[in-house]
Write a structure and sequence with these properties.
Helix content: 40-55%
Number of strands: 11
Mean pLDDT: 81
Shape: globular
GO molecular function, one term: galactosylceramide sulfotransferase activity
Pfam families: Gal-3-0_sulfotr (PF06990)
Bound molecules: 3'-phosphate-adenosine-5'-phosphate sulfate
Largest sheet: 5 strands, parallel
Family: Belongs to the galactose-3-O-sulfotransferase family.
Keywords: Glycoprotein, Golgi apparatus, Membrane, Signal-anchor, Transferase, Transmembrane, Transmembrane helix
Distance between the termini: 72 Å
Order of helices and strands: HHEHEEHEHHHHHHEHEEHHHEEHHHEE
Membrane topology: Single-pass type II membrane protein
Strand content: 5-15%
Length: 485
């Protein structure tokens, strides 16, 4: 013992005598001293060691309960600088909804597009971000709307310690989803009789230079900013894979959505409830599996595929197929490192939380419904293509706080973006009709055009979804998705 410790010990025993502890035996005194020292140590640790600080709870109704926190995450701080590359038809709207919820609850600032996508399908440039004033001038925390990824420009907008992640889906399932959604949009799909017909002879229908045909070939590769029309070679595929690996810390899989959410929550140090979600943007469902995502029993004739046609689609999308296989293997390595048993426990917990929240929030036991059946027009999802895109009805009679928390979980992407936009830019001129959803086409005037000014030599044209395309001499176009879902 040092002199200082001896002194402290003596002064402590004097105080204990003063408190009446002199009646206790020596064993009890020693125990009491130990307890006092341990308590003081804890207190100092909490005060001075920041890594002991538990993640701040989102001010969500659900997270107030212990179950909503989930199993402990250890000594980490919640990540609040996040870039999510929102790939198409991969469950990305469900993930964006989580990011919107988390950011809203934590009062974070979103890098939002002027319209609904960041200039897609053109490669991303920082000027597409509303409120961008130059590299690192304005502070943005979360970015997650559709874009064609281009890292040097994203880096101008997001802080250096940003966590980059994205999600992939099996290219055959993705092709079905894409065909159903973009049937009338991608010329290659429009011309074919069905997906099977397209798979049998894609070159008959596919013209690489036609606008929106990127939805028909290696769509993931395209979204990651790579050349989706390049001829497949293993060397090329590996180079692309390496680029994705370099740029993204975590790649999720939509087929293993719940396991993905567990990995994500641990990577971000987030409470369980932030990654509990209801599947958004699903095609009309037949049955609902336990995992909570909407499955399809019988596909419409135009989407039916033989085993050979599935194989042909893999070959047609060979670059995406490579990417999917490579990251599928990485994904399971991560699960292995995480611990299979621990993963199973957390997935079970996540699913039971989803069931609890579905019972609280959703009408008809949580079954998604056709947009036309949703009484509140403000939460009807956007419709496109061959099939009906489903949404949810809220349970009637909820108290206001619960209603708001539930609403956040089912609010479709477009309406949610409008709401956040309005909060972040209360004084800016908003789109007429913002935050009001309807099934009808409502083309909105885009405020960014008025702010930046339309240049001489540019002409306005609309894309399939109401996006305003500004065409100039070099044929560059800007998107401002202007159709409400
Ligand atoms: N939780 C979960 N797990 C697995 N799959 C899910 C989940 N949530 C949504 N989905 C399915 O994702 C498809 C929609 O994808 P996106 O939201 O990325 O579409 S979009 O690009 O934003 O239009 C769409 O696929 P299809 O139904 O096959 O079209 C959704 O059903």
């Amino acid at each position: 013992m040092t002199d200082y410790t001896k002194q402290s010990f003596l002064s402590l025993s004097r105080r204990m005598r003063w408190l009446g502890c002199y009646r206790l035996g020596p064993m009890w005194k020693a125990l009491l001293v130990f307890v006092v020292i341990a308590f003081a140590g804890q207190l100092l640790g909490v005060l001075f060691n920041k890594s002991w600080v538990q993640p701040e709870r989102p001010r969500s109704l659900f997270s107030l309960s212990e179950n909503g926190q989930g199993p402990p995450l250890g000594s980490c701080r919640p990540q609040t600088h996040i870039m999510f590359l929102k790939t198409h038809k991969t469950a990305s709207s469900t993930i964006l909804n989580m990011l919107y919820r988390f950011g809203e609850e934590q009062g974070l600032r979103f890098a939002l597009p002027m319209g609904y996508q960041f200039g897609y399908p053109l490669p991303f440039i920082a000027q597409r971000v509303k409120g961008y004033r130059g590299p690192q001038v304005a502070k943005f925390d979360i970015m997650g709307n559709h874009m064609r990824f281009y890292k040097p420009e994203v880096e101008k907008v997001m802080p250096t310690n940003t966590f980059y992640f994205s999600i992939l889906r099996d290219p055959v399932a993705l092709a079905e989803s894409s065909y159903a959604y973009y049937k009338n949009v991608a010329p290659a799909f429009r011309r074919s009789k069905g997906l099977g017909d397209f798979a049998d002879n894609p070159n008959k229908y596919y013209e690489p230079r036609l606008r929106n045909n990127h939805y028909a070939r290696n769509l993931l590769w395209f979204d990651f900013g790579l050349d989706h029309n390049a001829n497949y070679s293993l060397a090329l595929a590996k180079r692309g894979e390496a680029v994705v690996r370099r740029n993204f810390k975590l790649i999720l899989l939509s087929e293993y959505f719940d396991q993905s959410m567990v990995l994500l929550r641990h990577a971000l140090c987030w409470p369980l409830d932030t990654v509990v979600s209801f599947s958004l943007n699903a095609r009309q469902q037949i049955s609902k599996s336990r995992s909570g995502w909407v499955g399809k029993a019988a596909a419409p004739a135009s989407l039916q595929l033989t085993v050979e046609q599935r194989q042909k689609l893999r070959e047609w999308n060979a670059l995406d197929w490579h990417l999917y296989q490579a990251f599928n293997s990485t994904f399971w390595d991560k699960v292995e490192r995480f611990g299979r048993e621990k993963m199973d426990t957390e997935v079970t917990l996540l699913r039971s939380r989803r069931e609890v929240l579905a019972r609280i929030c959703l009408r008809d036991g949580g079954q998604p419904v056709e947009a036309s059946r949703i009484r509140d027009r403000a939460i009807r999802p956007f419709q496109s293509g061959l099939v009906k895109i489903l949404g949810y009805e809220l349970q009637p009679g909820l108290d206001n706080a619960t209603r708001q928390a539930c609403l956040r979980m089912i609010r479709p992407e477009i309406q949610y973006k409008d709401l956040l936009d309005l909060r972040q830019f209360p004084r800016a001129q908003q789109h007429p009709g913002a935050a009001v959803a309807g099934n009808a086409l409502a083309v909105k005037k885009d405020s960014s055009l008025h702010r930046t000014g339309q240049q001489a030599g540019e002409s306005l044209e609309r894309d399939w979804d109401g996006t305003i395309l500004v065409r100039n001499k070099s044929q560059e176009h800007v998107d401002i998705k202007g159709k409400l879902r």
